[in-house]
TrEMBL record, chain A:
This is Oligopeptide ABC transporter ATP-binding protein OppD. It is found in: Cell inner membrane. Belongs to the ABC transporter superfamily. Keywords: ATP-binding, Nucleotide-binding, Transport. It comes from Parasedimentitalea huanghaiensis. It is a peripheral membrane protein.
UniProtKB/TrEMBL annotation, chain B:
This is ABC transporter permease subunit. InterPro entries: BP-dependent_transpt_permease (IPR050366), MetI-like (IPR000515), MetI-like_sf (IPR035906), OppC_N (IPR025966). PROSITE patterns: ABC_TM1. SUPFAM superfamilies: MetI-like (SSF161098). Residues 97-286 form the ABC transmembrane type-1 domain. It comes from the Bacteria. Keywords: Cell membrane, Membrane, Peptide transport, Protein transport, Transmembrane, Transmembrane helix, Transport. It comes from Parasedimentitalea huanghaiensis. It is found in: Cell membrane. GO terms for cellular component: plasma membrane. It holds the Pfam family BPD_transp_1. CDD domains: TM_PBP2 (cd06261). It is a multi-pass membrane protein.
Length: 594, 301
């Protein structure tokens, strides 16, 4: 069954016959208006051991391409209307479904973006792995178990025996993705398709998974198609790159050549809008330190976890522990950290969505001491922009009404004045006033985020909390939204609390940065201090892990990252140790190990 | 069927302008217009019953029975035949529409309002308010509805409006349950959190942002409820605690005659058809209403 065993291991051999050959592939969708093509004339070949990256923004057709290869296009609406997909000279498109099933998972395997949803939540990891192996190899349960264990060991899973009997929800995101990789590679497929394999993962976990994928591919000689929107990942992983845009191939080439001398305008624009990490020195440091708008002192947010028969509090999640910082007028203060570090919790506490202990002072008044009416008035000063603009706009309201709503709530102006102001806001964020009558679903992702920004600006706030506000957007759109945000600071003097997991974006937009780890700030300082001279080990680890969009970049060896972040959930009597922040000069605060 | 003036069909095919009233858009849907026509027909029939038929609903006519004393099948004198007592069935169905419309629309509407209020309040506020309301709902669900209805109907003097009230007090439970779970998942959505950060109050969030999203569910439950309430009324009448004979209702016509189903099938068939048609009519209108009121469906016909 393992027909690929004699395949040459090692890096890719350009002269060998291609494993996968896609020619003139056109996929169309059946609409009422007739066939509409989703991708047109895609041709490429994949050599043994090679990594081919298909890069492009959302809607470019990269996932459709991969589904077409897997034969997983949703019938009968979407189907291949032209072209060939040959796997070792077999045309996959002519095969019946039963034969396709043998090939899927066995000869071509796939890893999906969201590891939680691609694993069955009610089966143990071991059972799922064995099932996948036994589906293609006629072997016994015992042998399948042994092979599963081997596969888990191969993906460098800690305590593989224990993992076999665990369920998906007991594993972290990174571990789940490793299980998916183990499952995909257990049968030694000829081709591995990885569809945004690390997009849902934290940056340090992403680094581990990418390294694992590269090592495994080198050892097994599997050819890989890597589908991603992240040019950093492309630069680090790929041998060859295909750039796609709205269903068509724009450019194809060797990774080095494509990054250093892109031929097409679209590729150039795409590469130009990728945020790049510097050392934080490029900032135009100005006298931005205005009066402080928000002062956060000893902020703590804890969630009780109840258990036992009587529903007593047995554990607590220490989401935010003793956080102190100030945000000054007109500056962009960034909070970075990985998921679960408490950065969004701080945003919610500031926006009045969560109860907290400690003090939050906004424009001089302490929130806890305010009456209800005063608290409502202070909401005008702090506005929030969420991550997903579609989810944060009521889909049943016209966008003009949505932007005018804050004015209505706070009873500002007459109806005519309000619509005039809304028109002005629309104009300011780059939309036309004629679009006010439309509904949120009629806009693109970037336009929706502009609507959210207009909505936040309606009350002329002093502080805007942007919680991962650009993370869901394509890079080119992201760059434009960030530009808009920057202009607004200069024009209106708005301060931002910018929350992100993306170090490169933070490095580009922020004035001051705080790095969070397990609910505490471990390093804080101005951009040049944190990025130019990172002191805390975790900060270095974060910066180190960011994929660099430059294929010639040599990653310093030796720094292999391992281990998952511990859980912030603790037993009642077990309170976390508070980090001591020490000023190492000019306001650069670092948590000192003891 | 087509007494009601339908809008010019040529109109519906032309490109429609951006903004139109919900009613105008509703009238462009053929099925909705058809549903409207059926409802209107029922209402007109109920209101103008005395003028539409020469008989009285209570008249036990000598001509209405065969020599053996069996009910007459449909004929030119008695269009839908007669019942066991020699009363004209068409007349009884027309007069029965008065009862059934009141029960189907008023009782069901009341049940819907109670269910919505309780479900939405519990789902939005949660905590002890929600807990208490939902435990009460569970209690009502566990309690046999018919028994409760009989108790309530026995306490009060039976009359049409009391029956409507009784039906409303037992029928709101399912609506409340369904709307509770929908509201609690809506309340978790990010746009509600976004509204809170703007300083929006509870009333604003509930009425402007949560209720519009519940409209489809409410409409579905409302239309489904029509047939169940009409039948519940029939059950109550059958047990002697509903509308008192000889007053006609669609439900009690069926119940009075069900034992003679084999001998005189039209006696069960025609009133059942009336119930089905009314429920269907409301369903068609409800469906169209749901689509018309949902802006996210616009341009995706």
């Amino acid at each position: 069954m393992i027909g690929t065993a004699e395949k040459p291991s090692g890096a890719y051999a350009p002269d060998a016959a291609p494993v996968l050959q896609v020619s003139n592939l056109t996929v169309s969708v059946n609409t009422e208006a007739g066939l509409k093509s989703l991708i047109r004339n895609i041709s490429f070949s994949l050599n043994p051991g090679e990594t081919l990256a298909i890069a492009g923004e959302s809607g470019s057709g990269k996932s459709i391409t991969s589904l077409a290869i897997m034969g997983l296009l949703p019938p009968p609406v979407v189907r291949v209307t032209e072209g060939q997909i040959c796997l070792n000279e077999t045309d996959l498109l002519t095969l019946p479904e039963t034969r396709m099933r043998d090939i899927r998972g066995n000869r071509i395997a796939m890893i999906f973006q969201e590891p939680m949803t691609s694993l069955n939540p009610v089966m143990t990891i071991g059972a799922q792995l064995s099932e996948a192996i036994m589906a293609h190899d006629p072997i016994g349960r015992r042998e399948a178990h042994t092979r599963s264990l081997e596969a888990l060991t191969a993906v460098r899973m800690s305590q593989p025996e224990k993992r076999m009997s665990q369920f998906p929800h007991e594993l972290s995101g990174g571990m789940r993705q490793r299980v998916m990789i183990a499952m995909a590679l257990a049968l030694r497929p000829d081709v591995l398709i990885a569809d945004e394999p690390t997009t849902a993962l934290d940056v340090t976990v992403q680094r581990e998974v990418l390294e694992l994928l590269r090592d495994l591919q080198r050892d097994l000689g599997t050819a890989m198609i890597l589908i991603t929107h992240d040019m950093g990942v492309v630069a680090e992983m790929a041998d060859r790159v295909i750039v796609m845009q709205s269903g068509q191939m724009v450019e194809e080439g060797n990774v080095k050549q494509l990054f250093h001398a892109p031929k097409e305008d679209y590729t150039k624009a795409l590469l130009a809008s990728v945020p790049r990490m510097g050392d934080g020195s490029g900032a135009q440091e100005g006298g931005k330190a205005g009066a402080s708008i928000a002062e956060i002192r000893n902020l703590k947010v804890r969630f009780d976890v109840r258990g036992g028969i009587f529903g007593r509090v047995t554990h607590r999640v220490h989401a935010v522990e003793n956080v102190n910082f100030d945000i000054h007028a007109g500056e962009t203060f960034a909070l970075v950290g990985e998921s679960g570090c408490g950065k969004s919790t701080i945003a919610k506490a500031l926006a009045g969505l969560l109860p907290y202990t400690g003090q939050i002072r906004i424009a001089g008044s302490e929130i806890h001491s305010l009456t209800r009416a005063e608290a409502k008035a202070i909401r005008r000063d702090v506005q929030m922009i969420f991550q997903d603009p579609m989810a944060s706009l009521d889909p049943r309201m016209r966008v003009g009404d949505l932007v005018a709503e804050p004015l209505v709530i706070h009873k500002i102006g007459t109806a005519a004045e309000r619509s005039e102001r809304v028109a002005m806001l629309f104009d300011r964020v780059g939309l036309s006033a004629a679009q006010m009558e439309r509904y949120p679903h009629e806009f693109s992702g970037g336009q929706r985020q502009r609507i959210c920004i207009a909505r936040a600006l309606a009350l002329q706030p002093k502080l805007i909390i942007a919680d991962e506000s650009v993370s869901a957007l394509d890079v080119s759109v992201q760059a434009k939204v960030l530009e808009l945000m920057r202009e607004l600071t200069e024009e209106m003097g708005v301060a931002y609390l910018f929350i992100s997991h993306d170090m490169a974006v933070v490095e580009n937009i922020s004035d001051r940065v705080a790095v969070m780890y397990l609910g505490q700030i471990v390093e804080m300082g101005c951009r040049a201090q944190v990025f130019g001279n990172p002191q805390h080990a975790y900060t270095r680890r974060l910066i180190e892990a960011v994929p660099v969009p430059d294929p010639t970049y040599e990653r310093p060896a030796g720094l292999r990252l391992a281990g998952d972040i511990p859980s912030p959930m603790r037993r009642l009597e077990d309170t976390p140790k508070l980090a001591k922040l020490v000023d190492i000069g000019e306001g650069h605060l670092v948590a000192m190990p003891d | 069927m087509s007494i009601v003036t339908t809008p010019d069909p040529a109109n519906s095919d032309t490109a429609r302008p951006e903004r139109q009233s919900a009613l105008a858009r509703l009238l462009q849907r053929r099925l909705a217009v058809f549903g409207f026509a059926l409802i209107l027909l029922t209402v007109l029939g109920a209101v103008f019953a005395p003028w539409l038929t020469p008989y009285s609903p209570y008249d036990q006519m000598f001509d209405g029975l065969t020599i053996e004393g069996a009910p007459m099948p449909p004929s030119s004198t008695f269009l839908l035949g007669t019942d066991l007592l020699g009363r004209d069935l068409l007349t009884r169905i027309l007069y029965g529409a008065r009862t059934s419309l009141i029960i189907g629309v008023a009782a069901n509407g009341m049940a819907l309002i109670i269910g919505t209020l309780i479900g939405v309040t519990a789902g939005y506020f949660r905590g002890w308010v929600g807990g208490m309301l939902m435990r009460m709902t569970d209690l009502m669900m566990a309690f046999p509805a018919l028994l409760l209805a009989i108790c309530l109907a026995a306490i009060f003097q039976p009359s049409l409006w009391i029956v409507a009230m009784v039906i409303a007090t037992v029928n709101w439970v399912q609506t409340a349950r369904v709307l509770y779970s929908e509201t609690s998942s809506l309340a978790e959505r990010e746009f509600i959190a976004a509204e809170r950060t703007l300083g929006a109050g509870h009333m604003r969030i509930l009425f402007k942002h949560i209720l519009p999203h519940l409209v489809p569910t409410i409409i579905v439950w409302g239309t489904l409820g029509i047939s169940t309430t009409v039948l519940l009324e029939a059950t109550l009448s059958f047990l002697g605690v509903g509308v008192q004979p000889p007053v006609a209702s669609w439900g009690n016509i069926i119940f009075e005659n069900q034992t003679y189903f084999q001998a005189a099938p039209w006696l069960v068939f025609f009133p059942s058809l009336a119930i089905v048609v009314l429920a269907l009519a409301f369903n068609l209108v409800g469906d169209a209403l749901r689509d018309v009121l949902d802006p996210t469906q616009r341009g995706r016909n």
